Amino acid sequence: MHPKLAELIQILDLEQIENDIFRGYHPQDGRGRLYGGQIMAQALIAAGRTVSADRPPHSLHGYFLRPGDPAVPVLFMVERIRDGRSFTTRRIVAIQHGRAIFSMDTSFQVVEDGLNHQAEMPAVQRPDDATLARVNQSDAFVTFLLEYKAKLARQPLPPQQHHWFRANGTIAADDPLLHAALLTFQSDDALLSTSRLPHAGKFERKDMQSASLDHAMWFHRPVVRVDQWLLYALDAPQAAAARGYNRGLMFTEAGELVASTIQESLMRLRKNP
After folding, report:
1. How do residues 142-176 score in pLDDT, each as one tens digit?
2. Residues pairing with 90 in the sheet
3. What kind and span of H or E run contains 189?
């Protein structure tokens, strides 16, 4: 296991300081604000710690309220909204400096059988040894962006992209909540940028104020292995009113659709770039 992945797993192992209250810490990676995927993953872990292990998460809906401060821990306050026969609902508020920086509702469900159909996985190149030799493997996740060279050209592009990713090491299969949290962490990667692809020349921070506004995620399978290759197929049907609308589908190498995401992002042009 790569040290960065080990550090991330440690960060997701929240400290419980009271009933339904947890404290989370952050990596010292030099970021000016907390990464949204980390806060969502920690919030999911906090909620999951109050739910029976036989109920994996099936959805989450979060709102980013304020930038997170990487210099101080975050308190996660969990409210037990409902414990039903099939579904369990939790509401989580993340607090720093006495103010909410993030809120999320998440739902857990007992594992059930049902009808099945799904969208087909896009027919795209799969990662192989030759391509992986050129990929950065010094982080918690190994990622392979198919449109990387096209993005470097900084020309207007269709609002879609495809990422292969997997955790940079083997993770115990008997902890589905950890796998779900790591999947949540990675789901925030590149999603926001999809709606900016048609607007080349406006990527730089000096030209555009951008931030994640909200994030929704659905887990279509009770167990998803993040230490095996997953394809993240992203598109952005619209940008309007200083917001971008981004969507994502996650597939296994075998083509099984395991998760979906939707995120709105702020895309505000600066008046005096």
Report:
1. 888 877 656 655 778 888 999 899 999 999 888 99
2. 80, 106
3. none
Out of 105, 188, 189, 227, the active site residue is 188
Residue 188 appears among annotated catalytic residues: yes
Count the alpha carbons within 13 Å of 81 in the hemisphere toward its beta carbon.
14
Which domains, ranges and CATH numbers included, belong to the chain?
3-269 (2.40.160.210)
User: Can you tell me the distance from the alpha carbon of 256 to that of 57, in angstroms, rounded to the nearest whole number?
Assistant: 18
The two three-digit tokens of residue 172, written as one number: 């115990």
Q: Of 38, 107, 187, 212, which is the active-site residue?
A: 212
In the sheet that holds 208-219, the strands lie side by side as 15-18, 21-24, 74-83, 87-96, 99-109, 57-64, 208-219, 257-269, 243-252, 230-240, 160-167, 141-145
217 contacts: CB under 8 Å, gap ≥ 6: 40, 59, 60, 184, 187, 259, 260, 261
